[in-house]
Amino acid sequence: MPTYHSSTELTINVRVKGVKHHLVFTPTTLGESFLTVNDTLLERAIEHHPYYGKMFQRMPEKESAPQQTPSDKTKKGDGLTHILFTDFDDAKERLVELTGISRTVLRTPDDIHKYSFDHGIVFDGMPP
Q1: Where are the alpha helices (DSSP H) in the chain?
Q2: Taking residues 48-71, what's their average pLDDT?
Q3: 11, 20, 29, 70: which sits with the fewest CB atoms below 10 Å from its CB?
Q4: Cα separation of 31 and 87, whole Å?
Q5: pLDDT recorded at residue 68
Q6: Is 0.70 surpassed by the pTM of this model?
Q7: CA 54 from chain center: how many Å?
Q8: With DSSP H G I counted as helix, E B as strand and the rest as coil, what are the percentages for the chain, rounded to 5?
């Protein structure tokens, strides 16, 4: 699904197969706005709009990074579940998924280590 970005709040009108569509870009608090569409005919009409390239443009598609899955877990002889992560944000999200802990208590890397160890999880690859 392509996403279009504008540096200002914006609405445009396009016509697809004789039907007029009024499209409203969703504003953000920074004054920018975004529009995501999932129709190829609408996408083509947007990219032929006179403002395209001047007031708004298509954002590049993000390549999805390989996701860590539960199959990445291994049991070692110490009775703890070891998961390989190198980023505290990923470890935090994984810990929330596995244990249901509130994200608000996981503010620092020390909190992540403490709560993960309390639940029998060790994140290998992260600094202590």
Answers
A1: 40-47, 88-99, 109-118
A2: 72
A3: 29
A4: 31
A5: 45
A6: no
A7: 27
A8: 30, 30, 45
* Count of CB atoms situated within 10 Å of the CB of 12: 20
Q: Is the pLDDT of residue 74 over 70?
A: no
28 token code pair: 């953000």
* Chain centroid to CA 110: 25
Instruction: Tell me how far the alpha carbon of residue 85 is from its chain's centroid.
Output: 18
Q: To 10 degrees, what angle do helices 88-99 and 109-118 make?
A: 30
d(CA 123, CA 118) in angstroms, rounded, equals 12
CA angle 58, 19, 10 (to 5 degrees): 40
Q: How far apart are CA 29 and CA 6, in angstroms?
A: 13
